[in-house]
Design goal:
The structure is a homodimer. Chain A is of the alpha/beta class. Chain A has 14 helices and eleven strands. Helices cover about 45% and strands about 20% of the residues of chain A. The longest helix of chain A is centred in the middle third of the chain and has 20 residues, at about 215-235. The interface between A and B is medium-sized, with 30 and 30 residues.
């Protein structure tokens, strides 16, 4: 049981393979890349000894000299300092590395982001494989080539657009995820359904129990369908100058709530879920979608145990935070709103009144 | 008096403009780039108050909000720490920057390398203009998109291939160069002549006096011709997988001598000059070129006051250092040798005996 999705990016195209137990295929996949003899597996302290070691063992078994590089877990470590430490570890690999080195990122979003930037920066770019182990990384970070680290003044401000040579998603790793981590990915799945694929919303609604239990077959389908949507969006706009902004659906108000709650208080998925509810309320209010459609989305979110209410929000504060967001270019607040389930458009001049309507829907 | 050379790299193509007094055109050039409103001018402590300020003033006069970022001069500062400091300075620009920020690199090779990497890394890539102020940066670093910083274990190990939006070369800045710095660029000019353009060797031989005096018209022609050669080589092989290696002519033995002498003892141009002499001696020995051709090249180097002898070298030591070079893949020593003036080929299995012949020519 394995599915392959091609991410079409010209000479930077690559395959995303989704399957059960696929982490043991990393070795053969790496060996199939021309001239790879050495690999650095980057994994955080939570999984270095489990999935990290499993990945390194697969590489070794395939005849590739693998070095496991462990770093301290957590978003707080997505820094220049840890990036620099990783480069030190890469250049300490013996015998000296050359451009035939392969970087293998094994872990969640933080690991993929920082490892990808290490791969982009080592000798001005070496190949890398991404082996995401969280649902959020599977359906979001694994496609698009956004790599990077945080700066004291903001998230993901330093980095590169750098595509991997391939992505291997082992859905078995989802079974060890904390519920909060699973939730983070599910928010993005509903987002993808609303922006591109109404039938995915049906699939989610019909398989809620299996999804929450991380049943392998269903997770394979869920991940593959989401990767396909993200791949399609990214292929149309690699450098984020146009329709890639559709992926911000649910994120404008969502980010504001995340900030107001205090970063890390809400899971990313919870914040996105609330952002989706708010965006849909605005869309209903503007007669873009029907209340029935908005309700279908709300039911899917609720079934996935994602929050759909957040009482006590001050709409003025939400508006103010939205205006400070780096995506609010030139002071205008841009929102992505659905015009039907499976289709969104970008609206550049959202008003404070509209945002207040969205916030009211969360009360 | 201005010449423009197009660097053809698909959607990353750009123009290199060479002229006298062109530094005052940075403002209009930046203003011609869509949506640029803010710029960060990066210059080292040697020239921040002169050319750096001149550049910033030109930007301000063109209506662009310019911030001058100064960093301590010298190759020793091409580090992760200085890179990180520069990013701090970029993100401290007020009001908050977005992808419309323009980075302007004003200075020699170190400035271009580190500034380009800052541009590549800021918000995953903002536009940058390169304003080289040394002959080496003019004819070498200004074309090719190699950006980066040093690691404790080697030079330029961390960085990105990242093309500028344009390059402005003001030959007037060459008049303030130290003779040793001028020499560094002249070594590359002779290299370019040998690998691609016999008539450039004639031009150099006929204009030696004007070149050493940095006479503006002649320097314009010299720089433009060299940029055109480098642009042609890079356009054929942006990511250095094939013929871009021709640019290593004179550098294999040259780097080894640089290392043996103690890095910084010889100017880069002096080391390249010695490397050219050695490579040509090997080429004569292998009947690739005639002694007459080798002598023409030697005369040009001597006329430019570049060294052509370096007595006392131990050929075994040179061989050993060459084998350690990162460009010596898989233990084989690769050398680029001329087959006539204006044409080179790559030879993958240079022998210790050949290198000894080359070293003997320096005695």
């Amino acid at each position: 049981m394995e599915q392959t999705i091609r991410v079409e990016l010209g000479d930077r195209s690559y395959d995303v393979r989704v399957g059960s137990g696929i982490l043991d295929s990393v070795g053969p996949a790496a060996a199939a890349l021309p001239t790879v003899r050495q690999a650095a597996v980057i994994a955080d302290s939570n999984i270095a000894s489990s999935y990290g070691k499993q990945t390194a063992d697969s590489l070794t078994a395939a005849g590739i000299d693998a070095t496991l590089i462990e770093f301290p877990t957590g978003e707080a470590n997505k820094t220049v300092a840890v990036f620099s430490d990783m480069l030190d570890a890469v250049f300490a690999i013996s015998p000296a590395i050359d451009r035939d080195l392969l970087i293998v990122a094994c872990g969640g979003g933080v690991t993929g982001d920082i490892s990808g930037y290490v791969a982009a920066s080592t000798l001005r770019g070496v190949r890398w494989l991404q082996c995401p182990t969280s649902l959020l990384a599977d359906v979001d970070a694994s496609v698009g080539g956004k790599t990077g680290i945080n700066h004291a003044t903001g998230k993901n401000l330093i980095g590169a657009f750098y595509q991997p040579s391939g992505v291997l998603i082992d859905v078995e790793t989802l079974k060890t995820l904390a519920p909060r981590e699973l939730q983070s990915g599910l928010g993005e799945c509903v987002k993808h359904a609303v922006i591109r694929d109404a039938s995915l919303l049906d699939f989610i609604a019909e398989n809620t129990t299996e999804i929450l239990a991380c049943q392998s077959d269903v997770m394979c389908d869920l991940v593959a369908r989401n990767v396909a949507i993200k791949a399609d969006v990214v292929a149309g706009d690699e450098r984020e100058t146009g329709t890639r902004a559709h992926l911000n659906y649910g994120h404008t108000v969502g980010h504001a709530i995340e900030t107001i709650a205090g970063y890390g208080t809400l899971s990313h998925g919870a914040a996105v879920s609330l952002g989706i509810i708010a965006a849909n309320a605005i869309a209903v209010d503007s007669r873009l979608i029907s209340p029935v459609d908005a309700d279908r989305v709300r039911q899917a979110l609720e079934a996935l145990k994602l929050p759909v209410t957040y009482p006590g929000l001050n709409p003025d504060e939400v508006w103010e935070v939205m205006q400070r967001d780096k995506k609010a270019r030139g002071g205008h607040v841009r929102m992505v709103l659905p015009t039907e389930i499976g289709r969104v458009e970008i609206f550049d001049n959202t008003t404070p009144q509209q945002v207040a309507r969205g916030v009211a829907a969360l009360g």
